[in-house]
Amino acid sequence: MAAGRGGEAGFTLVELLVVLAILGLLMGLVVPPVMQHFGRARSEVARLDIANIESALDLFRLDVGRYPNAREGLAALVEKPAGLERWQGPYLKQKQLPVDPWGYPYHYRVPGEHGDFDLYSLGADNEPGGTGENADIANWQATR
Q: At 88, phi and psi to the nearest 5?
C-alpha cells in the first residue's frame, strides 16, 4: 500500500493496473487447460451413457426377443410399447431418456449400419463429424 496525501493508505491506479494485468495473465495460462479437461470429461460421460443404454437395449432384447424398432426408439426402454407382453422394463433407472452431456438426445438407428443398432452422440455441435468436443461418439467406435 502506498501512503497518499493526508496520511491515508491506499492503492494507486498503477498498482491496481499491475494486479489486473497479473490476474489476466494467470487466467490466460490456467483457463485453457482446465476447459480442455472439462470438454474431455463430457466426452467420457457420453461414452459411459452409451454403454449404459447399450446394456439396457440388450436387456430389452433378452425379454422381448428383438431390439426396439425405429418407431419405438429408445423410449421403449422407459415406457412399455403397446402390444409387447414380454416387456419387463423399465430398463433404465431414470424415468426419462438421458440426453448427451451437451443437451441433445442420443441417436438410435435400427437396423444399424455398424451392427444390430447404432447408438451415438454427435458431440457439442450436434453435427456429423468434427474433432475434439465436436467429435461424434458412437457404440461402434473403439474406446479410447
A: -120, 20
The contacts of residue 134 (CB under 8 Å, 6+ apart) are: 123, 124, 125, 127
pLDDT tier at 140, thresholds 50, 70, 90: very high
Domain boundaries, the chain: 39-138
Q: How far apart are CA 35 and CA 127, in angstroms?
A: 21
CATH number of 39-138: 3.30.700.10
What is the pTM (predicted TM-score) of this model? Answer: 0.71
DSSP secondary-structure letter at 105? B
Average pLDDT, the chain: 86
Judge contact between 141 and 121, C-beta under 8 A.
no
In this prediction, residue 11 carries a pLDDT of 81
